Amino acid sequence: MGRPAKFTHSQLQAAALALVDREGLAGLSMRALAGELGTGAMTLYNYVSQREDIDLLVVEAVIGEARWPLAGYAQWQDEVRAIATALWQAVRAHPHAIPLILTRRSRSPAVFEVTEALLRALARSGRSGPALLVAFRAVSGLITGLAQSELAGPLALQAEESAELTIARFRALPAERFAHLIDIANAAAGSTADGEFRASLDLLLAGLSADRGGER
């Protein structure tokens, strides 16, 4: 018998993410990942022991795609913006993986390095301890929250429904009861997810800049 196939961690990550991108989470399994790698399911047990391990491969692969310039930021806001935007772009590039990013907690050093980079940038504002924690949760929550809102928010598209039809449904609501909901539905018709993210991040950074991080 030949030796079992050997795979690097990066190869496992790439194969798991490719499978999720193509088949969705329903298509992610030990057997499917083995097929993606061209090996048998039993071989994978040399690398992962359970389904959650495969989920974490996907999370690590997505976060690992975030890239931003590592130097050259005169202001802490610019560095936070660069890191947050890189994470946003990585997450949005893989919509099927978003539920895993929201629910799985990776302890991978690679994921920790991204987290540390964001914390380091936020700490340049003078924050530490509880104030730094709040700022970090605000920025990371903005990234994942906006990504999730595209899937499950009030303006999220229904299955097999166009954006135009979704907006039309809101415009048909009673205006006296849902004036503001209709208002943002109309705004969404001319909006983009990237544009909303940039505006939301600017708003958040303005708030963090105004509140210089008093301990809470």
From TrEMBL:
PANTHER family found in the cross-reference section: HTH-TYPE TRANSCRIPTIONAL REGULATOR RUTR, TRANSCRIPTIONAL REGULATORY PROTEIN
PROSITE patterns: HTH_TETR_2
DNA-binding residue intervals: 29-48
Residue stretches making up the HTH tetR-type domain: 6-66
Protein's name according to its UniProt entry: TetR family transcriptional regulator
Annotated GO MF terms: DNA-binding transcription factor activity; transcription cis-regulatory region binding
Listed GO biological process terms: negative regulation of DNA-templated transcription
Keyword Transcription regulation: yes
Keywords in alphabetical order: DNA-binding, Transcription, Transcription regulation
SUPFAM superfamilies tied to this protein: Homeodomain-like, Tetracyclin repressor-like, C-terminal domain
Gene3D superfamilies xref list: Homeodomain-like (1.10.10.60), Tetracycline Repressor, domain 2 (1.10.357.10)
